[in-house]
Amino acid sequence: MSVIVIPAADVDRVMPMRETIEAMDRVLRVLARGEAQLPLRSLLRLPDQSGILGLMPATLADPPVMGLKVVSVMPGNHGTELDAHQGAVMIFETRRGQPLAILDATSVTRIRTGAVSGVATRALAREDAGDLAILGSGTQAISHLEAMACVRNLRRVRLWSRDGGNARRFAAREGARLKLEVEVMPSAEAAVRGADLICTTTSAREPILCGEWLAEGAHVNAVGACTPTTRELDTAAIMRARLFVDRRESALSEAGEFLIPRAEGAITDAHILGELGDLLLGRCAGRRSPSDVTLFKSLGIAVEDLAAAHWAYQRARAEGVGIEVELGGRR
Question: Which CATH architecture has domain 2-109+302-326?
Fold first, then answer.
């Protein structure tokens, strides 16, 4: 049968941020209603520990689709022309199991991750929040700036990165693209102090954001760390915040931001107040007062990739985007 291959440039075309935010809102509600299946991601580490091959399968009832993201994570790519994440998302229809599409995973991951943080920000940040700090200047910093601009009126944007040159290039390029002034700051603390929206999008293994820097009423999207031994936020930041996750099972297995403070005895499992889908369905309370500090710990889950890929596939079919190839067994 005919399968659409959707390369990176075409993924960007058929997954505009504002619409992807709505697609992620829908799929997180589907997950919360129990209409999805997703095992924990499977990770295969290279013998020299230089990288990981990750496998993330899932099924959805709405839309009826199943699929898999296979992605390499190569930290050594940071600072090169290659993104640290490389791979593909493949989706199948569920009636007869026929393949539908293969999409560039780097683009899907970048856009849907920012979009999920957009959903979290819309649900948890104060309505008047608009002083944004972004830590990091890579792929996820790009998508998060765009997502934050979709869900809040940004009055100030501050950026910090360990790579000052990359930060300056980011500020000039993305500021012009989104018609925003982006200020490059000399330190993470200078970027965060006084901000009411904060996105951490770095490859840091140790904390780069301290709880004492957080202003009352701030909302944080913690995105960069995704293993049990790495974190971007220190224990004090976690203790201060009302914590929400994309999936509790994943956080209990993979989120260093949660697992390290728990191992220190600073928090318990009860510190996770709910999944984002439960918050959207009104099953748990989010922000209770303007002074609350709220935190969304993003790990990225397969249903997000699946829903984003299926939506992009439908758009690609309608617009004649992508490359058609023949795949699938016949008797």
Answer: 2-Layer Sandwich (3.30)
